[in-house]
Amino acid sequence: MSTQPTPALSRSLWSRLGTREPTLTRGGFLRAAAAGLFATGAAGSLAACGAADSASGGGFTYASILPFDTLTFIPEMMGTAGGYLSDQGVDMKVEIARGTAQAMQTVLAGKAPVVRPSMIDLATARTTAKQPLVAIGTVMRGPSVVLNYAKNDALDDPTKLVGKTVGIPSKGGTSEQTLLLMLTDAGVDPDDVKRQVVGQSPSTWELVRRGQLAGFISGIDVSLIIQSQYDDAAALDPGKYSSIQSTTQIYVTTEDAVQKQADKLTGFLSAIRASMQAVIDDQSRAKSIQTLRKKYHFATLDDDAIAKRAFDVYVDLWTTQANGRKLLETDQEKWVAGIEKLQKLGYISGVSKPETWMTNDLLKA
C-alpha cells in the first residue's frame, strides 16, 4: 500500500477543479426524495407563518446541511473569518441540520432564511410537495461530488459502471442524485448499476481496494485526501458526462422571505459574493487559506497542498459555465432547460412556470 502523495489528480477533475440498500427506480427515487424532504402536508402552512415571525427577529441563521468541516463551505467560512458578513451587518449563526431534508424543513419552518441544497432538491419540493421555495443565487455551477475508483479498474466512463456496485453516502441524497443523472445522461439505465450505502470517508477506499465496491461517491475534500494518500486512486468528474444543471448548488429561501427579509438576504449574498471574489483574486490561495485557519481547523484545510488543490477546484466550480454571468447569478435560460429536462427524464412531474422558481433580484449589481 502506497502512502506517497500522488502528483496529480485525474484529468477530468483537475480540468474542473455492508448492507445494500434497495435499488431506486426513477419513480422510487422521486417518492423517496419527496418523503424525505416533506414528511407531512402541514409544512406549507408552517412555512408561511414561520417566515413572517423570523422576519422581525434579529440575527441571521444559516441552515447548513453539514458541519463547517469541509471546504465546500469556503464562501460561508470566508464570510465569517474574513469579516465580509460583518461588513454587511450580517451576524450569521449556523444551525447544523441532519442533511438536506432537515435543513430545508428548517427554512420552511421560518427558523432560518437560507439553505444551500441542489437544484433538484428545489425542483422536487416545488413539484411534489408544492412548497414555496425559490433560488436566490447559484454557488456551484457543476457537481460538487466525484466518483472515486482504482486505476487498475478504470471507471473513466459511466458505461463501465454497468453491472457493478457503487457506494453512496445515503439513499436519495445529492450524491445518488448526481450518480443517477450522470448515468441517465450517458445512456445507461440506472437500474443496471447497484448502489450500496457506505460511509463517506477515506476509510471507505479500502472497500474499493478489496473489490467489494467498484467505486464510491464522495465530496471533493474526501477525494483529495484519498488521492494524496494512495497512488492507485483516481476520480471521475460527473460534470464531464452530464449536461443536466440540476446538480448545481443554490441558495434557497421561501417566497415569503424574499418579500419580508429582502434586506437581510441581500446583505448575506453581497457578503458571500465578496468572499468568493477575494478567493478568486488571491491566485496563490495562501492568504485565503490563512484567513480560514484563524477560525477553522480540519484535515483538508490543515494540509497546505490539499487545501490549495481544493480551493482551485471550488473556484472553478463557482466560475465555469457562467456564460458571462456574475458570481451567484443564475442563468434563467439554463435553469428552465434543466428543470424541463428533469421532467422529460421522469425525475419530476407537474412542472409549471419554472422561471418563477428563481430570482436574481436580491443580488446587488
UniProtKB/TrEMBL annotation:
PROSITE patterns noted in UniProt: TAT
InterPro entries: NMT1/THI5, SsuA/THI5, TAT_signal
A Pfam match: NMT1
Domain SsuA/THI5-like: 73-286
Protein name: ABC transporter substrate-binding protein
Annotated source species: Nocardioides eburneus
Highest classification ranks of the organism: Bacteria, Bacillati, Actinomycetota, Actinomycetes, Propionibacteriales
